[in-house]
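Need residues for this backbone.
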């Protein structure tokens, strides 16, 4: 696409709403409220699953923690299971939906 051709945002959004296109959002869109402050969902998960001896980096903490686990001989399936258990826990905050009940994209605040 050249710079002279304007991007058709309306067509893109219509394709998402009609189910012809699945939007893939970055992790920075998934925020949760945790003890009164807003944090990235992946950071929250990494902090819950973090062994006390591991210092989490600022960037991509969940990927870092997964890499450490795999380097020690852990299995990918176990990571998925622990994440699901943590996210399904009664006290685990959930990110807000990005699409409203009518199927429209919500504007971020």
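Answer:
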């Amino acid at each position: 696409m050249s710079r002279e051709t304007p991007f058709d945002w309306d067509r893109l959004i219509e394709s998402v709403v009609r189910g012809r296109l699945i939007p893939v959002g970055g992790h920075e869109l998934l925020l949760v409220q945790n003890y009164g402050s807003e944090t990235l969902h992946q950071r929250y998960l990494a902090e819950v699953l973090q062994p006390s001896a591991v210092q989490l980096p600022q960037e991509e903490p969940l990927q870092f923690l997964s890499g450490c686990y795999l380097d020690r001989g852990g299995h990918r399936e176990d990571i998925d299971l622990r994440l699901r258990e943590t996210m399904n826990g009664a006290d685990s905050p959930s990110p807000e939906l990005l699409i409203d009940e009518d199927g429209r994209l919500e504007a971020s605040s």
